[in-house]
Amino acid sequence: MTSRTVDLRGRAESAGPDSLLAAVRVPSDDCVRCPRPGPVHDHVGHLHDEVAVALRPALAAAARSRGVDAPQDEELGDLAERDPNQAPPPDPTAARRRVAEATADVDALRERADRLGGRVEARRALDADTDAVERQYRTVARELAAAETERVAAEQALSREQAAVSRARDDRQASLVAADRRRNLERTARDYLVATVADAFERALRVVPGGVPATPDEYDGPPLPAALAVARVARIRAPLVVEAASFARPSRAAACLDAPVLLV
């Protein structure tokens, strides 16, 4: 066992690899006290014979662990500040229903007012008493004025809802454009970051067990050597959980990966 390697193989009391990995990634877990893992740990924190690794994202994370920034980072940061979870657009159905109901009320009351007005004129023409009919007419006229006020309010509310729908549609379109821009920037930034460590990755493949030198674009070998090479390229302070049979000696694992190792 070296100062950077803890060999837990064959220890009955040792935790399993999944438990160890969780302990490494939870700062409050006293089972393993270590620096907080960086993003690259998500890609190569657990190295085993069946490991799967997304090579380009892993290499981009490795580049960032070495302090490399991409030219696209500032614009990506600006885009990240925009709210991706926009509220759904308002539904104007209720506002339309309110306008329709208010319009129907106005039409019905106007029809009643017209009829009552006609009765008033007819009774006057006959020189008959109009008091009762005029009271009904005034009542309906007040109801009609209130209904017309309600219709105006309903139409204004509908106008506001429709404007909100239009704004939400515009915001949604802008969000889609921003999301597309963000994906393109992320891809360009990843390509840039991968290019900065491509030579280091190829050199690392010469050192790790099972590795065959190749550029990131050319590599089509097994996942484990690629993952080991990424780990070697990265600057890793938190322990890697390694259960690959490639490392018979603990010192070999730490030297090959250039990182702290929990060998299980």
UniProtKB/TrEMBL annotation:
Residues 1-20, 64-104 are annotated as: Disordered. InterPro entries: DUF7856. Residues 1-12 have a biased composition (Basic and acidic residues). This is Uncharacterized protein.
